[in-house]
Give the backbone structure.
Amino acid sequence: MNTDFDNNPEEIIMDSGDNMDKSTATGGITTKEESKKGMSANTAWWISIVSLLIVCGPLLMGIGIARGWNTIDGVYSFKTVYEPSRFWPEPNEYNQTAAVDEMFGSRNFKNAASLWYYWKLRPGNSDPYCDSTTIPPEPWTLSCMVPKTTAVTRAFVWMCYVVHQCAIWALTYKAQREHARDVQYHSNLRWYNVWSLIVNLAGYLLHLLQTHLTYDATAQDVTESSSQGSVIMLLVMVLLMEYKNRGLFLGWPAKPADDGTKCSWRLPTRPIELVRKYHGYAFSWATIYTLWYHPMEPTAGHAMGFLHTGFLLIQQSLMFTPIHVNKYWKLLLETWVAIHGGIVALQMGHSWAMFLFGFFWMFAFTAIHGIPYYLGFVDIARAQQKGEDTTKLLKSNPMVPEAQWKRYLVRLIPPVLFLVIVVIFYSTVLLKTDGSFDALFLTEVIRIPAILYLMVFFTCFVALGMQSATNSMCKGSPVTPKTINHQVQTGEELTAELEPTKELYKADAESGSSEDSLQKEQQEQKELPSPGLGTGTVMAGFAVCYMLMVAISIVIEQVKVDMVLILLTFVLVIIFTILALVAMILMDKQMHRTSLGSPKLPSKND
């Protein structure tokens, strides 16, 4: 993986909506001296990765194994070790527990087994049902030796989660509000980067401590499908964000498409920009919510999962730096779920191939086409469609084929290799129990991709509908750059929502460059939206949206909704997506970040 994160703008294909770095006290104007202050983002990335590996390796795994967790006779086991003295078995797994399963409310419904999360303390109301006589407990024993959850254990983990979550949201919001009109990335850390890294590291260490003190994570109170649903929501939004550059399937329909596809085939831009500008809030919720759902148990699946959430939190912490838009780093973030999902399913004895190959389908057919090499195809296609000379482009990208048919063939290499590997595995390692090959069994590989692709369209058009509806409801007199410049020069007051823009024009006026800045601003955006909702309204609406997500997850778990896991997860993905989009719409009605132009990466000399 390319780790030279301080690349120049030509070496990193820029996202027009990824979070944008802003300056500090000058309202968007950063001097060269200021840009030199602080640790470089590249160095911070390396330190963060090493720190994460230490937390998930020697600390998480080492301390857990030292306590005898997930071990057999003191030896660590890759497979899940079912320990009846620590956890209750899944409902309906053993005939010996059938009578209790039938009577006990949390175990007496059809889909109880698939919705049961294994790594949690026994319920607080389970004393009448637990077995205190079988010592040592058998695998099927609902043993009283298993510690019981209490109000204190539940309240403590929720308090930790809420503090971690709100701190990261506050840092993201403060950074965006403080630098609302600047689109300049910076190679060095700003205060919000530093504090985000500190908060996230503290969150990991606190969670490790909490696991060894009270053990229970939020899994005691919320349904397992909510954790999975939040991650799927994140993956879907990533697909939508990256659609603008790499398309959705084999680089299609990238703009301009290599096959000359007309723009009418493309998804609308407005929803994509909305998600690009405000994805940080939804992604940090999905990541931190999932982090605190699981205890820090020393299994391979848990360790890989905590590595993934750690990677995502490093990505969040390094907002407004070139690392945040580095294509190879983002490819790793997007693809890690395949490794994690496959290991978890293999460890638990579930259909690991469906998870491993389902997510690697997304890598071969979609994600890899966003790396700079494949994005170079679009540059060549654009020049050829315009009848321009491609000599310089081909010289700077010597590995990119000039002929269109060759580019088609090169795009097919990853998916063809993927399909060959899948067929080999399913015809050898993954034969049916009777040793025969079932071609229909291969269809499980497309289940996850089908859900993700469908949800991209759902998310896009729901967001578009919300934007259209709210724009028609919230009409007002538009405020153009020219109007702002005039008001600054005449001393007229602007609303708080436009203060960052006012400061930008003040600085330009003092330096004698207001007209140049005005022309540049007018090129990037025709007009700015009118001042929108107040901070109190936005914060209240934002809080309601995410509180509803958590509340729905709690209700489903507590009332024991009897639904197949995959169906329940799909329902929650829809609910989470809608509420996250509402929160984004509210944010945009205050900050208007969708009207900003493309981010500008720092040069080597910055």
